[in-house]
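Changelog note: in this version the structure field was regenerated for every chain. One regenerated record is shown below for reference.
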Amino acid sequence: MSHFLVIGGTGMLADAVLDWNRKGHTVTVVARTKEKLKRLVCRAASPQNLHIVQSDYLQLEHFTNQLAQLSAPDVIVSWIHRSGNDAVQWLCNHYKKPNNRIAFFHIKGSNAHNPKQNFIPQYSYSISYHEVILGFQLDDGAPRWLTNTEIAAGVLHLAEQKLPRYIVGTVEPWSMRPQS
């Protein structure tokens, strides 16, 4: 069984976290809100295999100190906004040890489809880097953002398929992107 480290796993990724937990994997979830972390543990099929860390990636020193205490995961799933690119780079630097082979799934908003707005961290050969771009859906021509269920299903699919880049939903036509 694998050890998953999920940054931001209490909202849209909660169903993916619970699925990995139900399948017997060890999952460590890092999130800002203690209440949401506790609710996630209450929903877990195997709460003994779901570990929680309350930390905010924008508070980089606290975040890195907390994560440095954890054992190396097999898989990192990172839903860190562009404002937290330093935290993403820290993860890649911290886990670049030669004896580690880690799959890193970097979840990004739809703007990352534009190469000028897409941050790709520097990473070593020991990290298998994968991008997940969250797009939108067109329902009978009407645009809407993805639901948490659709996002979690897309992340679960990519974690199994290990594609280099995967778009959940669509990002085209860009002019149809929801405005709110």
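Spot check on this record: The chain has a mean pLDDT of 94. Helices lie at 14-22, 34-43, 60-68, 85-94, 148-161.
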